[in-house]
């Protein structure tokens, strides 16, 4: 992580400090006074309800070496190592940008509507066989989280895998110009953020902003089956291109995919006789693995090393996480996020998964889909196969539209819709025998992991 004296920091961002403290050394940064570690630079943000400046003295007493202080906030403590700045957020971003310039490191930037975190995790796993790698932790993928991640990078880190999220146009542009990736990955273009951006075309444009910070002759890896990306990048000559997808027109595509309750087995073009094992369910996750493999190949990781690494890949929680329930049922916890594309992919997975007597789906609201949100939900319900899925449970006001669509193909006694989570749990428990597989999926705001927790053995 960043280790600098206050004098050095004044050369990295616009600030003023008392020369008495110029030799004070900071180690790492922190924006939460409750989580301050020894030597941190504390960053106080001034919000509508809470002003972080009131915690500056306490943060230093807990071990922080120094703190920023916003210029228009009165009474900065003269007896403490303080850096006066116009805006602590801008200063944080300036510091991260300057620190990134000093690092001799490869940066992999990852964006997309679905699968960003899973792909980031897979890339990290593959590269860790050969390099010292750090990645974005949690959801630190925005204008605050990305600078914090960059400033947490160790001097000896060789590759950083940075997730870049967005909700509006221009946000990826800012992040990629801050991180300046050597490799950029776009996992796909879905419907998330339709509410803010209005169309899939606009979403594609926003995701493509990741190329704005890409190093000259850098590599972009993207989902080649997406026409919105292919058309935009067809005449691109500023950087190199590799694609992944199901079509044989891609640089890397699967020759076959086999799904079991333990995960996925697949082979790839050019290595038809080699089987790659992935302890993660879903064909869409095989695509995420292909994206990761292209990145690893660019950095000279052998396919033999990738094969071994993929067998033991570990993903962030609540992404196709397989859990055993109290009666022995299997639960697929995919409750971190949802869009029509990812929900249909998860439903398709459970529909054709073999080895279970019954299949149950528990689906909640998909958020931020804009004016057509009810139509998207109803289409998900209509898309389900009543011959393969025994019960449909929905949660939330938009989930009711999933149920409405499902009732066009399912009998009434196999579709249940709730706005009360506990009532859903009680009804779900009443139909479980222990021989089922249960998919639980919704947008993060629905907190459907609470359903999973209630069923865990």
TrEMBL record:
Entry-linked InterPro entries: Mur-like_cat_sf, Mur_ligase_C, Mur_ligase_C_dom_sf, Mur_ligase_cen, Mur_ligase_N, MurCDEF_CellWall_CoF430Synth, MurE/MurF_N, UDP-N-AcMur_synth
Annotated metabolic or biological route of this protein: Cell wall biogenesis; peptidoglycan biosynthesis
Record-listed ATP binding positions: 112-118
Subcellular location per the Swiss-Prot or TrEMBL entry: Cytoplasm
Taxonomic classification: Bacteria, Bacillati, Bacillota, Bacilli, Bacillales
GO biological process: cell division; cell wall organization; peptidoglycan biosynthetic process; regulation of cell shape
Enzyme class (EC, first level): ligase
Keywords, alphabetical: ATP-binding, Cell cycle, Cell division, Cell shape, Cell wall biogenesis/degradation, Cytoplasm, Ligase, Nucleotide-binding, Peptidoglycan synthesis
Domain Mur ligase N-terminal catalytic positions: 25-100
Catalytic activity: D-alanyl-D-alanine + UDP-N-acetyl-alpha-D-muramoyl-L-alanyl-gamma-D-glutamyl-meso-2,6-diaminopimelate + ATP = UDP-N-acetyl-alpha-D-muramoyl-L-alanyl-gamma-D-glutamyl-meso-2,6-diaminopimeloyl-D-alanyl-D-alanine + ADP + phosphate + H(+)
Domain Mur ligase C-terminal: 318-444
A single GO molecular function term of this UniProt record: UDP-N-acetylmuramoyl-tripeptide-D-alanyl-D-alanine ligase activity
A Gene Ontology term for the protein's cellular component: cytoplasm
Family stated for the protein in its record: Belongs to the MurCDEF family. MurF subfamily.
Function, as annotated: Involved in cell wall formation. Catalyzes the final step in the synthesis of UDP-N-acetylmuramoyl-pentapeptide, the precursor of murein.
Keyword Membrane part of the UniProt annotation: no
Domain Mur ligase central: 110-296
UniProt keyword Cell membrane present: no
Name of this protein: UDP-N-acetylmuramoyl-tripeptide--D-alanyl-D-alanine ligase
């Amino acid at each position: 992580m960043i280790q600098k004296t206050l004098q050095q920091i004044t050369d990295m961002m616009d600030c003023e400090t008392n020369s008495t403290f110029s030799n004070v050394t900071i180690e790492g940064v922190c924006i939460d006074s409750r989580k301050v570690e020894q030597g941190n630079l504390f960053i106080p943000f001034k919000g509508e309800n809470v002003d972080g400046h009131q915690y500056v003295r306490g943060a230093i007493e807990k071990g922080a070496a120094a703190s920023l202080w916003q210029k228009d906030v009165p009474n900065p403590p003269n007896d403490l190592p303080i850096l006066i700045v116009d805006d602590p957020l801008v200063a944080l971003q300036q510091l991260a940008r300057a620190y990134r310039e000093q690092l001799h490191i490869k940066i992999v930037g990852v964006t997309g509507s679905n699968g960003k975190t899973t792909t980031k995790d897979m890339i990290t796993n593959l590269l860790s066989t050969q390099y010292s790698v750090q990645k974005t932790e949690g959801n630190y993928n925005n204008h605050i989280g990305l600078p914090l991640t960059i400033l947490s990078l160790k001097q000896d880190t060789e590759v950083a895998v940075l997730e870049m999220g967005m909700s509006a146009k221009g946000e990826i542009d800012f992040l990629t110009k801050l991180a300046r990736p050597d490799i950029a990955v776009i996992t796909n273009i879905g419907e998330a953020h339709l509410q803010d951006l209005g169309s899939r075309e606009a979403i594609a444009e926003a995701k493509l902003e990741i190329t704005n910070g890409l190093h000259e002759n850098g590599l972009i890896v993207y989902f080649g089956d997406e026409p919105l990306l292919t058309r935009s990048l067809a005449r691109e000559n500023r950087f190199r291109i590799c694609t992944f997808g199901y079509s044989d027109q891609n640089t890397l595509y699967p020759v076959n995919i086999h799904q079991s309750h333990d995960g996925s087995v697949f082979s790839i073009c050019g290595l038809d006789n080699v089987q790659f094992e992935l302890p993660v369910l879903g064909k869409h996750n095989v695509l995420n693995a292909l994206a990761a493999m292209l990145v690893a190949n660019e950095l000279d990781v052998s396919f033999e090393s990738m094969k071994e690494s993929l067998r033991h890949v570990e993903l962030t929680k609540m992404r196709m996480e397989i859990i055993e329930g109290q009666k022995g049922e299997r639960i697929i916890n995919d409750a971190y996020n949802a869009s029509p594309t990812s929900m249909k992919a998860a439903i398709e997975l459970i529909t054709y998964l073999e080895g279970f007597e019954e299949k149950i789906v528990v689906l909640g609201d998909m958020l931020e889909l804009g004016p057509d949100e009810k139509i998207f939900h109803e289409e998900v319900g209509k898309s389900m196969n009543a011959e393969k899925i025994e019960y449909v449970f929905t949660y939330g006001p938009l989930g009711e539209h999933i149920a409405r669509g499902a009732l066009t193909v399912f009998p009434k006694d196999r579709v249940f819709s709730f706005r009360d989570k506990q009532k859903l749990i009680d009804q779900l428990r009443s139909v479980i025998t222990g021989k089922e597989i249960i998919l639980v999926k919704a947008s993060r705001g629905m907190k459907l992991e609470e359903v999973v927790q209630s069923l865990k053995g």
